[in-house]
Design brief:
This protein has 299 residues and is mainly alpha-helical. A two-stranded parallel sheet has the order 1-2. Keywords: Repeat.
Length: 299
């Protein structure tokens, strides 16, 4: 598999096909083998071969997954068939296939390029309320043009994710002389949520004190990444409650609540999950359907 990945990344179609044929003779390849070959065909504009590979995938009993449909959606958008890509995308939940940020970004770029802001508005609603995903950087231009076209209210929440706090004035590149502008938080170049979560797994008072002293500007995106990074759901729950009372403008929303309640449900932590359900009911927070299903499965 690794060798095929390397050859595929290098764009070596001939060698990739040779490896693929060898694997098919030895054993039934997994879905990712077919995905890599289809992606290579698409990048070389060999459309009929890509379709043939997909059909072969189905005949061989490999199950198309999110990556398979990402390749298909990217291809349709690149070919100017964004509406058809949207139709495929809309069918994925009924096929029990997870929709990804990459697929959303590809469709957003496609709708932007053809001026279909009505469909872009529907896409944003799906991203927020159905799949519970946060926007990534690739959607910035599409959202900007959508706002310029008059769809301001529909994009307000997502634009807030791109500019989560107006106190964030600059990013420290190491050349600052230390004279900060008053009222502006100067960020370090990056924060690694995984490393930070590992350091806090014990949730000791000294660790909490250090965290408070770091003056981190908490945003929905960062809190979600932290909650996902914690290995211990009880520590994640402690952090979830702690961050809600930190100075600043952060407040839990559907994204952070969804992330937390799914983690609690999956680990059978009934008491905190029940408390969070009360919060959801009291504040009328709408959970994405995919998260509701996960909670039901865990409960």
């Amino acid at each position: 598999m690794d060798r095929l990945r390397w050859l595929s990344a290098a764009g070596d179609l001939e060698s990739s096909l040779s490896i693929f044929d060898q694997m098919r003779r030895l054993r039934r390849p997994c879905s990712e083998f077919y995905n890599l070959i289809m992606s290579l065909y698409v990048s070389n504009r060999m459309d009929s071969d890509a379709v043939s590979t997909f059909n072969q995938m189905v005949r061989d009993g490999a199950i198309p997954n999110s990556r398979t449909f990402t390749v298909l959606i990217d291809h349709l958008v690149a070919a100017g068939e964004t509406v058809r890509a949207w139709e495929v995308f809309a069918r994925l939940p009924s096929m029990r296939v997870r929709r990804t940020s990459r697929q959303y970004s590809s469709l957003a770029s496609g709708f932007d390029s053809i001026g279909r802001f009505d469909l872009l508005r529907s896409l944003i609603a799906e991203m927020r309320h159905v799949d519970g995903l946060l926007p990534n950087r690739a959607m910035r231009d599409a959202l900007k043009k959508m706002r310029e076209a008059g769809f301001v209210e529909e994009t307000e929440a997502f634009v807030g994710e791109f500019s989560p706090d107006d106190r964030i004035g600059c990013v420290d590149d190491g050349s600052s002389d230390g004279d900060d502008e008053e009222g502006v938080v100067e960020l370090k170049r990056w924060i690694d949520p995984n490393a930070l979560a590992r350091a806090l797994e014990g949730w000791e008072p000294s660790e909490i004190s250090e965290l408070e002293g770091a003056r981190i500007v908490w945003t929905t995106r960062l809190v979600c990444k932290m909650l996902r990074a914690f290995k211990n759901p009880e520590t994640a729950w402690e952090f979830f409650n702690w961050v809600a009372y930190q100075p600043g403008r952060f407040a839990h929303d559907a994204h952070t609540v969804s992330r937390m309640i799914v983690a609690l449900a999956r680990h059978g932590l009934a008491e905190p999950a029940a408390a969070l359900l009360l919060k959801i009911e009291r504040e009328e927070i709408k959970l994405p359907f995919s998260n509701v299903r996960a909670v039901e499965a865990g409960g």
